[in-house]
Amino acid sequence: MSALPLPPVLSEAPPLRFADTFHALGDRFHTALPAQGVPDPHWVVTSDACAADLGLPPDWTQREEWHALQVFSGNAVWPGMRTLAGVYSGHQFGVWAGQLGDGRALLLGEVDSPTGPLEIQLKGSGLTPYSRMGDGRAVLRSSIREFLCSEAMHALGVPTTRALCVTGSPLPVRRETIETAAVCTRVSPSFIRFGHFEHFTHTAQDPDALRTLADHVIDRFEPQCRSAAQPYVALLETVARKTGELMAHWQSIGFCHGVMNTDNMSILGLTIDYGPFGFLDGFDPGHICNHSDHQGRYAYARQPNAAFWNLHALAQGLMPLIDEDDDALDALEAFKPAFANTMQSRMRAKLGLRTAQDSDPALIDSLLKLMAAERTDFTIAFRRLSRFQTADGADNAPVRDLFVDREAFDAWAAQYRTRLAAENSIDAERALAMDRTNPKFILRNHLAQEAIHKAEQGDFSETARLLKVLQRPFDEQPEHAADADFPPDWAQHIEVSCSS
Ligand SMILES: Nc1ncnc2c1ncn2[C@@H]1O[C@H](COP(=O)(O)OP(=O)(O)OP(=O)(O)O)[C@@H](O)[C@H]1O
């Protein structure tokens, strides 16, 4: 890699004060280096919500003395930023991939925000020592997808890294075709992944660094583990629990990640790395959103299993700090109840059930089977179920008509009605509660595609509009009804359901 020109340090007092806790861990964990930046940058989109959470003032993009456009394009730094690329390793598609690292990401620093410590990271800011065969760049298309989905998931209540902004540049970037460069600024309490721990055990074989990293995570994010009899076992158990909860969040909103490699698993149980992700349209448990996942390893229904597998890889990475194999295995078990209990409570909420009954799993399962048989749209079905009326002979056509086999739906609806009666459920109250649980708006691929198509022609208004819609996913927003409509290929789902 050739020497890089250093971006200028802007002398004005910046709007954020930076700390350098991760930087201070030392150079076994990262390489300090500047961003490569991009020529002639322009704003593509910004998230006011994320900016506010960071503690940036509302006019942060307009204050000329802060040169925010240059800073978030990698062309300049604010005083106090100590930029670095982190090193990690990982298993990809179940195979050990060796050393990876931030090949196109760069940590700018961390701030003490009103919501707690947050790190700010550029993605697409050029080559690092970990770029391997890559160019260190991100393109406009993938940056808009990552930006929109990060903020959409946050609004849906799913633990996730956030996105502050995307900047674009005319710099050409070769993918399948020639595209243009963009830089997505991500925000998270930490970007540490399972693969960081695997790195120090399997690649660097440095147990001292492993301990330093684990202590960093415990002291900064999971201090309750420190007082446990075995703090590192407690850390593993905490990660297993949070990962189980995360999987329940994903499954219950029909989110498919697509690349659940251990380098894409957050140690804090956050969704990280929005690549080939997708939300379910018609309910298909076997749905694979990543075209290069030929075996379906990360298919929708397999995500919890993949996460559990990844947790075992994390445990292997932590073993130098843990005396007994059985202690690690016991800690991993925390995943199962965390997933099962969170999933049950989320699915009960999706059906508007306030109480828990033994028959609920069967009720939920039979609805999902019916939806799978007909490829019923996952999001629309649950949203319409909010309007389900319990009175005898009530017209539940909006949800009933989603099913070709009306009789099968009626049979399920009879059980549902009985179950609702058992807790004296009131239609209007239940509808309100269900509308806060079953989103009306998700980032469907065709919506992202439309925004990207316009952005590639220099019109970013659709990206901004979609962001605003997705930041209020549970609100009716009748003026944006088309965004909640069936995806364009819905007719295909009908064909599938008729033929099965
Ligand atoms: N264009 C690129 N240039 C350099 N390295 C890359 C590029 N694309 C991916 N990589 C690296 O390949 C590895 C796996 O890539 P993956 O797509 O999972 O991550 P990513 O999307 O680049 O980053 P992140 O996981 O931080 O969101 C990572 O080490 C990543 O940095």
UniProtKB/TrEMBL annotation:
Q: Which UniProt keywords apply?
A: ATP-binding, Magnesium, Manganese, Metal-binding, Nucleotide-binding, Nucleotidyltransferase, Transferase
**Family stated for the protein in its record:** Belongs to the SELO family.
Q: PANTHER family of this UniProt entry?
A: PROTEIN ADENYLYLTRANSFERASE SELO, MITOCHONDRIAL
Q: Which residues bind ATP?
A: G101, G103, R104, K123, D135, G136, R186, R193, D273
Q: Which domain of life is it from?
A: Bacteria
Q: Which gene encodes it?
A: ydiU
**Cofactors demanded by this protein:** Mg(2+); Mn(2+)
Name recorded for this polypeptide: Protein nucleotidyltransferase YdiU
- Mind telling me which HAMAP family this protein's record contains? SelO (MF_00692)
Identify a single GO molecular function assigned to this protein. Answer: ATP binding
UniProt EC number: 2.7.7.-, 2.7.7.108
Primary role: Nucleotidyltransferase involved in the post-translational modification of proteins. It can catalyze the addition of adenosine monophosphate (AMP) or uridine monophosphate (UMP) to a protein, resulting in modifications known as AMPylation and UMPylation.
Tell me the Pfam families matching this sequence: SelO
